[in-house]
Amino acid sequence: MALVHAELTATCNSLGCAGPDKYCIDPQCSEAIRDLIKFLRRDGDDHEIRRFLGAANIVETDLLPILVEYSDKSELFDLVIRLLVNLTTPALLIYNEQPPMEKTPRQYYLQMLLHLQKYKRAFTDVNVWKVIVDKLAAVIQAEYYEKGEEKVLSTVRLLILVRNILHVPADNDAECRPDNDANLHDQVLWAMHQSQLIDIIMYITCSDNEQQYYLHTLEIISLMLRDQNATELANASVNRSQTEKQRDEQELKLVLEKERKEKMEKIKKYSGKRHSRFGGRFVVSGMKSIGDNEMVVSSMTSNINKAFDRYKKPLKTPRNRMPLKDSGIERKSAFSVRLFLKEFCVEFLQGAYNTLMKHIRETLVRSKGQPNDESYYFWAIQFFMEFNRNYKFEIKLVSETLALNIFHFIQERIEDSREKLITDKKKIPIWSKRMHLGLKAYKELMETLLLMYQSKDPTLQSSARTILTNLFYMVEYRDLILSLINLYDEVKFSQ
What is the DSSP code (8-state) at residue 23? Predict the structure, then answer.
């Protein structure tokens, strides 16, 4: 392994060096990047080469400066993008969406996560995104007959790179960022917004000529909005509402009250108070117990948790019987980030939602996409229909996903995921998450139908009544929720 490390060090040194004003590339820079790509192809199960390159931090010190300052060299640019896409591959994908549980592989997995978070911090630079935007714009603006296979492949790589960076999970414990503050994910989103990459993504979703990139853009959009609550995002405005002010004040009061109680408990614990003489057991004279002896009484406890067995170790739940953990974390992003994300959602609903969702559903029905693409489809139904319901509630903006065949499609996928929970036990978390997303999409469809049914518009009432009549007539739709509740298992089903 020492020989491999020596070769990797020599290859990294052949990339170039940082000058006083500009990064100076080595004459053998292109060959060095090709060699690094070959090294990564031959990486073993312990991912030693990937971890070595992550510890060397060549993404921040070498690759990104080359990307920014030598973007006019197309061959070198393509090689850098290929290497960046490889290095920023999500750790979950490397381990086939199953994080290792053994000690040593788990340590390698966490080490790769730290490297990915370090890469993501490097992508907060606006100049990096501006170069990517220029390359994407050049391909998109070209005529259809000018877009060869190489340009299409280059565009896909750039979109995958954006996906990889946004996919990096947040380290909330290390960042310690409260709500309404910009964490690392918000900083990357703001850099993308300043470089107008968000506008490029919006253009791709609105264009009929770029349908081959629809699935990539939907995945990017879902990662952009993964921490957001659709209702709160729809209600975000330049002037804070009275309800939002009251909610923030209430949260602050709760935090202050919690701190005050903790402080008082510490004072009581360490204060020099005299020990009570009657803290244990005592005898009640004149009262007989079951035998002829006097009755022995223990001190009464005001809290059931302060029982005699409170110091006993609780039974440890086996790993395979532990309830599923919910990985989704909702937080309030910085105010400026929420505003431009809200504007993006409004534009997406008005110009792209129906067209994009129709094409993606056709792709999923024909099984042309990847197995997990339906998860992003279900997420989009749930998020944007909830956003539309709390923003201005215009049915025409979400009409594509408000039909009986959509209910049938979601119901089929939920049933399929439920069967896979039984047959494919090694991937229970994956199938449970997909079923949960499908169920949330189904719930949002019902919420929208309820709002239509309660509307004063007779046309909306009639449409909702027609769909509900067909739904409640069919047994599989009517009994779906009841069957899921009857089969609920906290080990297999998420909460």
Answer: E
Angle at 61 between CA 60 and CA 64, to 5 degrees: 55
pLDDT digits (tens, 9 = 90+) for 393-404: 888 888 888 888
The amino acid occupying position 2 is A
- Show the tokens assigned to 163: 């996906």
Nearest of 425, 424, 423, 464 to residue 447 by alpha carbon: 464
Distance CA 263, CA 271 (A): 12
Q: How far is it, in rounded angstroms, from Cα 226 to Cα 250?
A: 26
Mean pLDDT of 297-311: 60
Enter the pTM of the model. Answer: 0.83
Element (H, E) at 163: helix 149-167
Q: Phi and psi for 100 in degrees, rounded to 5?
A: -65, 145
Q: Supply the mean pLDDT for the chain.
A: 83
- Quote the pLDDT of residue 274: 56
Tokens of 52: 């070595």
- H helical segments located in 123-212: 126-141, 149-167, 172-175, 184-194, 197-206
Q: Which residue has the higher pLDDT, 155 or 275?
A: 155
Q: Are 120 and 188 in contact (CB under 8 A)?
A: yes
Q: CA–CA separation, 221 vs 476, rounded Å?
A: 32
> Which residue blocks in 195-279 are alpha helix, DSSP H?
197-206, 214-224, 230-234, 242-270
Tell me, what amino acid is at 44? Answer: G
3-state secondary structure (DSSP) of residue 316: coil
pLDDT in tens, 316-337: 777 777 777 766 677 777 788 8
d(C-alpha 431, C-alpha 440), whole Å: 14
What confidence tens digit (pLDDT) does each residue in 13-70 have?
888 887 778 888 888 888 988 988 998 888 888 888 888 888 888 888 888 888 988 8
Q: SS3 for 44?
A: coil
* Residue 491 φ then ψ, to 5°: -75, -30
How far apart CA 413 and CA 402 sit, in angstroms, is: 17
- pLDDT at 228 > cutoff 90: no
For residues 162 and 132, is the Cβ–Cβ distance under 8 A? yes
Helix, strand and coil in the chain, % to nearest 5: 65, 5, 30
Query: By C-alpha distance, which of 159, 179, 213, 146 is closest to 332?
Result: 179
Tokens for 74, please give them.
């197309």
CB 40 within 8 A of CB 94: no
Query: Are the beta carbons of 284 and 295 closer than 8 angstroms?
Result: yes
Q: Is 196 left (phi over 0), alpha (psi -120 to 50) or beta?
A: left
Name the band, by pLDDT with cuts 50, 70 and 90, for residue 175: low
